[in-house]
Automatic annotation (TrEMBL):
It comes from Dokdonella koreensis DS-123. Residues 90-218 form the JmjC domain. SMART domains: JmjC. InterPro entries: JmjC_dom, NO66-like, ROXA-like_wH. This is JmjC domain-containing protein.
Length: 380
């Protein structure tokens, strides 16, 4: 298949099984050599062991010793070593076959050795990968169902799929290769001893790009280039970050003024309430229950804001997003303004709040942003 056709019809779109992609293929690295590399201090290696009876997975990171390998079970484990192309020139030479791709897109060649039943479980990668069978045989099961669930298990260190049902299944032998675009659920299981070479692509997330680009831009800005609000109108409501502020921020940062949970206002209300010297408020050692808070308030204890806890709020729909100490909470505009306006609030005011707003107050108390002061002592 011409490279142009592959890129047009399959790249980042559909999986492709390529039988005899490398005819008469001989693996450029042996299992023993891979094991030796996994014992090197600078090599990135992992051992994944599956207890099939309990469906329990364990993961260990290298470097390993010969004793580590000697104590492994006879089945159901896999050794993975990243960046083998940086250590072995013969493995690196495989990348010549992928020169139809931009060199900057290729990340590394990871090599995995597995005994019978060895696997890393059903999972999803968020990058393109070419899975070349080097030694032995591995059975690959994949799902091309666009509605396939991708929720992961919370009892495993690996990001394994909670549910996986294959739509296709193939047994790969030396020289066979499977291409998988990002987001395709897959599960490879060794049938006997096998070695697989994975050519993975570099695919930074949008979040990674935004953060790194922002740092790149920030390094080049002058210390005097700051937020300013010359000519602003007098403040109307205590603690409010109004629309004019957001408009100025949008111009300063050169980004759209988006509203909602991922907009500028939602970010800024958290950012501006973090204390500039990186001081963090300590939470209560023993959280107050709802009953305990009600009892303290009933005895007249007032709500007192921690002096390290900055607060501000911004309108969000008919309600408000309250920022305090870098965290944000949804509440009514009236409560947000009241909390920002007064460092101390009488017990009667708190008791008059709706149940969900008293629960927010309790969360703020337990987080350390507010304390309780005064009130009658309990007779019990």
């Amino acid at each position: 298949m011409p490279a142009a056709r592959f890129l047009r019809d399959y790249w980042q779109q559909h999986p492709l099984l390529i039988r005899r992609a490398f005819p008469d293929f001989v693996s450029p690295i042996a299992a023993d050599d891979l094991g030796g590399l996994a014992c090197e201090e600078m090599a990135l290696s992992r051992l994944v062991v599956h207890d099939r009876a309990r469906d329990h997975w364990t993961t260990r990171s290298g470097p390993f010793t010969e004793q580590d390998f000697a104590t492994l079970p006879t089945a159901d484990w896999t050794l993975l070593v990243q960046d083998v192309d940086k250590w072995d020139a013969d493995v690196a030479a495989l990348l010549d076959a992928f020169d139809f791709l931009p060199a900057w897109r290729i990340d590394d060649v990871m090599v995995s050795y597995a005994v019978d039943g060895g696997s890393v479980g059903a999972h999803v990668d968020q990058y393109d990968v070419f899975l070349l069978q080097g030694i032995g045989r591995r059975r690959w099961r994949i799902s091309t169902d666009p509605q396939a669930p991708q929720a992961v298990r919370d009892d495993v260190e690996l990001k394994l799929l909670r549910c996986f049902e294959a739509t296709h299944e193939w047994l790969l032998e030396p020289g066979d290769m499977l291409y998988l675009p990002p987001g395709v659920p897959h599960h490879g299981i060794a049938e006997g001893e096998c070695l697989t070479l994975s050519v993975g692509m570099r695919a930074p997330s949008r979040a990674e790009l935004i953060v790194d680009h922002a740092e790149f831009v920030a390094e080049r800005l002058a210390e005097t280039d700051r937020y300013g609000d010359a000519g602003m109108a007098p403040a109307q409501r205590a603690g409010e970050i109004d629309g004019a502020v957001i408009d100025r921020l949008a111009g300063l940062l050169g980004v759209p003024d988006r509203r909602g949970p991922d907009g500028l206002a939602a970010w800024f209300v958290g950012f501006i309430t973090r204390y500039r010297s990186a001081q963090w408020v300590a939470p209560r050692p023993r959280p107050l229950t709802a009953g305990a808070l009600e009892s303290r308030l009933a005895r007249g204890a007032s709500l007192v804001r921690n002096p390290w806890s900055r607060c501000a709020w911004t309108a969000e729909g008919r309600g408000a997003l309250l920022g305090i100490g870098g965290a944000s909470h949804r509440c009514s505009r009236a409560l947000a303004e009241r909390l920002c306006a007064a460092p101390e609030i009488a017990a009667a005011e708190v008791l008059a709040l709706a149940a969900e707003e008293r629960e927010l107050v309790r969360a703020l108390v337990n987080a350390g942003h507010y304390g309780l002061a005064g009130g009658r002592r309990s007779t019990r």
